[in-house]
Amino acid sequence: MSNPSILILAGDGIGPEVMGEVKKIITWYGDKRGLQFDVSEDLVGGSAYDVHGTPLHDDTMAKAQEADAVLLGAVGGPKYDVLDFSVKPERGLLRLRKEMDLYSNLRPAQCFDALADFSSLKKDVVAGLDIMIVRELTSGIYFGEPRGIITEGNERVGINTQRYTESEIARVARSAFELAKRRGNKVCSMEKANVMESGILWREVVQKIHDEEYPEVELSHMYADAGAMQLCRWPKQFDVIVTDNLFGDLLSDAAAMLTGSLGMLPSASLGAPMANGRPKALYEPVHGSAPDIAGQNKANPIACILSFAMALRYSFDKGDEATRLEQAVEKVLADGVRTADLLAGEGVTPVSTTEMGDKIVEAL
Amino acid sequence: MSNPSILILAGDGIGPEVMGEVKKIITWYGDKRGLQFDVSEDLVGGSAYDVHGTPLHDDTMAKAQEADAVLLGAVGGPKYDVLDFSVKPERGLLRLRKEMDLYSNLRPAQCFDALADFSSLKKDVVAGLDIMIVRELTSGIYFGEPRGIITEGNERVGINTQRYTESEIARVARSAFELAKRRGNKVCSMEKANVMESGILWREVVQKIHDEEYPEVELSHMYADAGAMQLCRWPKQFDVIVTDNLFGDLLSDAAAMLTGSLGMLPSASLGAPMANGRPKALYEPVHGSAPDIAGQNKANPIACILSFAMALRYSFDKGDEATRLEQAVEKVLADGVRTADLLAGEGVTPVSTTEMGDKIVEAL
Ligand SMILES: CC(C)[C@H](C(=O)O)[C@@H](O)C(=O)O
Ligand SMILES: CC(C)[C@H](C(=O)O)[C@@H](O)C(=O)O
């Protein structure tokens, strides 16, 4: 039997640098734990545009469909701001999400003990925080038609459409309930059912899936604006949050920032099971391409490394190995090893991107 | 010449209680400062539904159109959760906003020195915070057509439409630039131009209004998810934020919560000038109807009182009198007088809703 395959799309900005450290980790797992992967690489985002004139070449799309897991670095940069909407770096990422049908985006917001001081929130508000935001990723206003800029009378009108079908809501709700069962057994669903009909349907379907399939999980509903407030006030009240594509974009970023450790946070985007039983999957750090520090060996590779840990857990059914990697990261942090984004406090050892990768390999 | 008119719509939950204290303030201004208002009252939200079967009677709508300023308490409550979407308490508020064409919603997020400890954020992150969120309030996904829940094939689909015309964007942008000129001279505009065409048009029009009419104001653009992050990280980087109806809903609530003083925050919703030169205007606290504490003389009336201060400033051109009222509130807080929502710390005097109103009148 051939090895499971990983497609690496390092992307733009700091993407290639942080991915370099992930490759060290992959190699370590091959050498030391007998976990061999067939790794291939390709382009996405601005770097794909530079070569192919499109942020995602059809061949790359086809490879992603075949891969057991896709690891993505980051896309975008000021150089590409002038490009037309249809070929912007982000379109490459959105095409991957849509065509692989990665409907369930898992965004853990976790506060690492060693880093609690980096939060703008008071220590007792964030210490030990561990919530999971499940964001619908392939529908809603990101993809709904009609969309565009049209002319009506003598002015232009910008249009986007939020559309959710019952089955789109049901499948992401199931994925949230499944996760909750393995965590704190609590789901909070967020929408704006008080102003949007799509929110009414969302609430109704989430409730129905709960009542019929997951009655043992505690379910609550919250308006998304109140949710944004409550995340800022007392985030520990949440376990799993499930919400739509657009609310999930804002709420998961706010939650990520609360932890103070943006350079630390991974994400997984999962779709339906493939023939081999593995879900279609793409893993990427929550942070962006950080063009200001790209190429300087300064970026924090941990979010990308922890994204690989999520791949071990969700794609390759190696929860133990994922935990091993997460613990290695925690150990290195507890030892005071820090990249430039986290340089403060006493007893701290500043390291570069590559040194951080090496330290984590050592800790493994 | 007759006195300027105020229509009071106290609404549901704690609305009537907090509005009771505003009435004391209005009386004080009549008696002591010669500012006479013709005050009338009517129903909105659940309390209107209970009497008329609609959350806003046409007669009330007509009165609101005539009034020089509308003061609203709060709408909603669990009792009305079962109502059909079309007659929910919120629809009354949304109808007022839409038919009065109150396109510019001003939401100050201000941290009161005496209350900085109530924030979940570290003191240095919020102390002295003073930002103004300008939220577009009459368009976008709140009102766009088509909308509703339809059946397609054998399943239901929830649909809402985001629509922004150039002139809708231009007018709210102007209102943000005008405010910035009287404040820190900085505007940050937030959208998702990287995924939504309506965001592309938004960014373009805001930039154009800036370049043609307000080149002296500093303008920046930020994606709304990054904006949510930056609000949580270092809110003091902002002066005026301008954004659409839905993003504004989440971002202004998050910003409000950051200050830790939700019971303190007022808002103004302004439209075009009427024949007498005053803008159409509605003033309301940011907090909701708080059904859990309604009727207990426990609610904090300050947000509603400060909403009246905004009315003095924006509808009645009495900036000095507004400042007087704001200073009276600050003095009372500095003296340690607190309603139940803010009871912590030393040297604090707990008071009821009505006592708080009395203290503020005294301080005036
Ligand atoms: C890059 C962008 C298209 C993307 C999004 O809006 O989904 C990003 O913000 C994210 O959250 O992954
Ligand atoms: C009550 C509700 C309709 C309203 C909104 O969503 O606009 C509220 O949240 C607000 O922000 O004023």
UniProtKB/TrEMBL annotation, chains A, B:
Annotated function: Catalyzes the oxidation of 3-carboxy-2-hydroxy-4-methylpentanoate (3-isopropylmalate) to 3-carboxy-4-methyl-2-oxopentanoate. The product decarboxylates to 4-methyl-2 oxopentanoate.
Domain of life: Bacteria
Enzyme class: oxidoreductase
Organism: Marivivens donghaensis
Keyword annotations from UniProtKB, A to Z: Amino-acid biosynthesis, Branched-chain amino acid biosynthesis, Cytoplasm, Leucine biosynthesis, Magnesium, Manganese, Metal-binding, NAD, Oxidoreductase
A Pfam family per the record: Iso_dh
Gene Ontology molecular-function annotations: 3-isopropylmalate dehydrogenase activity
InterPro entries from the UniProt entry: IsoCit/isopropylmalate_DH_CS (IPR019818), IsoPropMal-DH-like_dom (IPR024084), Isopropylmalate_DH (IPR004429)
Catalytic reactions of this protein: (2R,3S)-3-isopropylmalate + NAD(+) = 4-methyl-2-oxopentanoate + CO2 + NADH
SMART domains: Iso_dh
Protein name according to UniProt: 3-isopropylmalate dehydrogenase
Residues that coordinate or bind NAD(+): 77-90, 288-300
Residue ranges occupied by any Isopropylmalate dehydrogenase-like domain in the UniProt entry: 5-360
Annotated positions binding substrate: 97, 107, 135, 225
Pathway: Amino-acid biosynthesis; L-leucine biosynthesis; L-leucine from 3-methyl-2-oxobutanoate: step 3/4
EC code: 1.1.1.85
Binding site for Mg(2+): 225, 249, 253
